[in-house]
Automatic annotation (TrEMBL):
InterPro entries from the UniProt entry: CO_DH_flav_C (IPR005107), CO_DH_flav_C_dom_sf (IPR036683), Diverse_Substr_Oxidored (IPR051312), FAD-bd_PCMH (IPR016166), FAD-bd_PCMH-like_sf (IPR036318), FAD-bd_PCMH_sub1 (IPR016167), FAD-bd_PCMH_sub2 (IPR016169), Mopterin_DH_FAD-bd (IPR002346)
Pfam families: FAD_binding_5
SMART domains in alphabetical order: CO_deh_flav_C
PROSITE patterns, per database record: FAD_PCMH (PS51387)
Name of the protein this chain belongs to: Xanthine dehydrogenase family protein subunit M
Residues in FAD-binding PCMH-type domain copies: 1-170
Coiled-coil region list: none
């Protein structure tokens, strides 16, 4: 690991100022991705700006039609928050399935979406719920935020402060996880009611998280697992690697989507 300067910020403004002091500064949230890549020599920032001291980024609050989750909220905090469990059950379920207990108590919402790993879970919740990413500069809709593998719309020095999720009781997330890493080989987030359905898939796409528009159209007409029977995801868009073939991922995504719809609608 290369030598670096460490700064602990007490506010978002202080963090932004620290970022401007170095040529290659990185924000440190939970460190679940950044620190391993530094150890492997894949990342070599000359400064780490630790966000752990910013209490304002660790809060969850309810608005009339949304819930705002601070960027430094841990997965365990999101999974266990009564407000999240009551108003957006799919999000709580998703957070509770991330990694193991150690990862859930260190990893953060903001760190996860900023990294945008193609097998990460939170991007599916953001896309599936039509969430809005909040930064120290602007607001970015989820459909415009995730651009590709490990790529987002964040500009240099921009800091995620939270995510605004619409209140959606009718939501569910199901995934088939890698038994070693617990990342999603395929994860499917379904949210909505007939006439307003969103389906987001993570772990399966070549370019990372994506919405399954054909499934959304079918479920808008009939919110039932049978609505998906005649659909098929295009194999050319599926990730094919040592963990699973593109064909298997496409099939699994369809099965999980149907199961999520059944869970929401109470179909046996």
């Amino acid at each position: 690991m290369n030598p670096f300067c460490y700064r602990r910020a007490e506010s978002v403004e202080a963090a932004a100022a620290f970022l401007g002091e170095a040529d290659e500064a990185s924000l440190l949230a939970g460190g679940q991705t950044l620190l391993p890549t530094m150890k492997q020599g894949l990342a070599a920032p000359d400064m780490l700006v630790d966000l752990a001291g910013i209490s304002a980024l660790k809060k969850i609050r309810i608005e009339p039609d949304a819930i705002i989750v601070g960027a430094m909220c841990t997965h365990a905090q999101v999974a266990g928050a009564e407000a999240v469990r009551r108003h957006v059950p799919g999000l709580a379920a998703l957070a509770g399935e991330i990694g193991d207990a150690q990862v859930r108590n260190r990893g953060t919402l903001g760190g996860s979406i900023a990294n945008n790993d193609p097998a990460a879970d939170y991007p599916a919740a953001c896309a599936g719920l039509g969430a809005t990413v909040l930064t120290d500069r602007r607001e970015i809709g989820a459909d415009a935020f995730f651009l590709g593998l490990f790529e987002t719309a964040l500009e240099e020095g921009e800091i995620i402060t939270g995510v605004r999720f619409p209140l959606q009781r009718r939501s569910a997330y199901l995934k088939f996880r890698n038994p070693a890493s617990r990342f999603a080989i395929v994860g499917v987030f379904v949210a909505g009611v007939p006439g307003s359905v969103r389906v987001a898939i993570t772990g399966a796409g070549r370019d990372g998280v994506f919405r399954w528009s054909a499934a959304e159209e079918a479920l808008n007409e009939r919110f039932h697992p049978e609505a998906l029977e005649r659909l098929a995801l295009p194999l050319d868009d599926m990730l094919d690697d040592i963990h699973a073939s593109g064909e298997y991922r496409a099939h699994l995504a369809k099965v999980l989507a149907g199961d999520a719809v059944a869970e929401i609608s109470g179909v046996a």
